[in-house]
Amino acid sequence: MINIFSKPLEELKGIGPKTSSEFRSLGINTVKDLLDYFPFRYEDRSIQNEESFIDGQTITFTGKVIKNPYIQRRGRTARLILTVRLGDSRQIRCVWFNQPYLASKLKLNTEITITGKYSEQHKQITVSSYEIRADNREMIHSNGIIPIYFGTKSLNTNKIRKLIASILFMPQVEVAEALPEYLSERYKLIDRYQAYKWIHFPENSYQLKQAKRRLIFEEFFYYQLKIQQTRKFYKVNTKDKTREFDNDILNNFIEGLSFQLTDAQKNSLQEILTDMGSNKVMYRLLHGDVGSGKTIIATLALIANWTSNYQGVLMVPTEILAEQHFKNICSDVAHLGINVCLLTSKYTKSQRNNIIEGIQDKEFDIIIGTHALFQEDVIYADLGLVIIDEQHRFGVHQRELLRMKGKLPDLLLMSATPIPRTMAMTLYGDIDMSVLNELPASRKKIITKSDPLKHENKIFLQLKDILDNGQQLYIVCPLIEESEQLNLENVYEIAERLSDYFDSYKIGILHGRLTSIERENIMLEFIAGEINILVATTVIEVGVNVPNASAIVIYNAERFGLAQLHQLRGRVGRGSYQAYCYLITDSTTESSKARIDAMEKSNDGFFLAEQDLLLRGPGEMLGKRQSGLPTFKIGDVILDMKIMEVARMEAAQLVNDETLAEKVCLDNIITGSNFLA
């Protein structure tokens, strides 16, 4: 038997440096990574006859190329047009968008299978996928239930499936089992190898359902194992001594603020200080609405920790956010004589070494940074408090690495997304929770409106008034490039329309395929006011503060969950201006209309979080990542919550039952899992 799970991808036949680099850009480095690169949706490509073609529906058919393809260009858009004959007589026009390079492949008399959206009026197909029949080889990409993967321009679904097939159908290939045998038997789960085959090459809906059920349970079970172990650690361990704070310093700092703390902030601060002052190790989640004031609570906790002569750490997911927190906290605590440092990956080796030495020698009291904070060579003199902002952006293992940098430091997790209590308990174990359920009195309600795309010019008129007043705009859309089969707006297409309309204003484009340096430079320009309009995918979601941004337009708003829409809306309204959120959608489904209606009526993140649970339909293709919640490779924490609850129950039993843990070799199971990275 051949176990190739850990084999690097470039060692596989046919994978050269260029292809290997393409896969790495998708986070795929090993065979295991590839098998865990699950489809984001599935298409039914069963071959249809001419009589079953329905206007506006996605169809699949086989035909012969009878004319050479030609290309039409309009602005940034290139349309490749091909004529295909079905059967003996009927001809149909096939259109590809922005793929002119395909012309050389689509030769006369080639037999081809095509999938796309059919237009009765134009007698044409807007192509989403195709496969050319070569010789008599089996066509694995075009018939039946076909998985669709996120790819790149040169690494499409077909190439990804072909490589996966070469692995799974390799003679005598072995896929090591990951679950304890008693769990597979108890829940009648198929084996791991079968699950991989059926998730990537399902022959029917039953196989797909069983594959998902197995893989989701496995992923959730390993997540819950670590959560339950963490909770057990905090329950059984106590501090060597209780900590005493200088309440006079804290009270004077609070009295010197230019605003008053809300009652929710006061209550949360008291809960945190009580934990920190007790002999138990704090394990607490502070969550609240967008703009509810988590950062000042984090600052006060860090000051309290400093008065008890301990170092404190604030870890955030991005360097821009780290720099923003560093600047603000330095300004806030300078008069107290607290030494603050910033540690990110941007520094030169000598600069980094100086900072690390200062941390180890306790020259710095508060350390702010990104993933660099838990690197092996970063040693803290006396770490007493770890605060992790946007905690869902860090894996369980990453959080543990930072916690282990000190001797039982208190841990405060923060989230800008209100999470229903029952869900939080399931996701994070029996964690203590502090809730910020009210906004500062000075925070204005964001006015939210929805309109169909045909009213875009009306919205542009309102945006012009905002720009002319010296304010800035966010424009958000769900795709980077044109995808006609889904008919979604994309950043480049919208940026082109905006440049025609707002020709005197500078437009920036921001999306996940830019390098981190490119994204950071664009964001810094926007923060500085050098970019007036930022057209972006949801990469703007993390809480960067731009007080001058007072309007956000969200295209294809129906594609987002309520939590994500609310997070995006929270990017504006941080200054003194009245803020606006425009939701553009042409969707007519009941669930999407209900979500949009909820957004228009409410600015309350707690209400919207509950509505998000109620309104998510099992057939809806919303963005995979739900704001503020842990992300998984295949599981959905909302739709698959019942599986999560079972996984939690089984993980808790295994962690707390020493006899069972010893029987199934719990330590080996956890060590062998890589779901926690």
TrEMBL record:
CDD domains: DEXHc_RecG, RecG_wedge_OBF. InterPro entries: ATP-dep_DNA_helicase_RecG (IPR004609), DEAD/DEAH_box_helicase_dom (IPR011545), Helicase_ATP-bd (IPR014001), Helicase_C-like (IPR001650), NA-bd_OB-fold (IPR012340), P-loop_NTPase (IPR027417), RecG/Mfd (IPR047112), RecG_dom3_C (IPR045562). GO terms for biological process: DNA recombination; DNA repair. The keyword Isomerase applies. Residues 275-436 form the Helicase ATP-binding domain. Keywords: ATP-binding, DNA damage, DNA recombination, DNA repair, DNA-binding, Helicase, Hydrolase, Isomerase, Nucleotide-binding. Pfam families: DEAD, Helicase_C, RecG_dom3_C, RecG_wedge. Belongs to the helicase family. RecG subfamily. NCBIfam families: PRK10917.1-3 (NF008165), PRK10917.2-2 (NF008168), recG (TIGR00643). This is ATP-dependent DNA helicase RecG. It comes from Desulfuribacillus alkaliarsenatis.
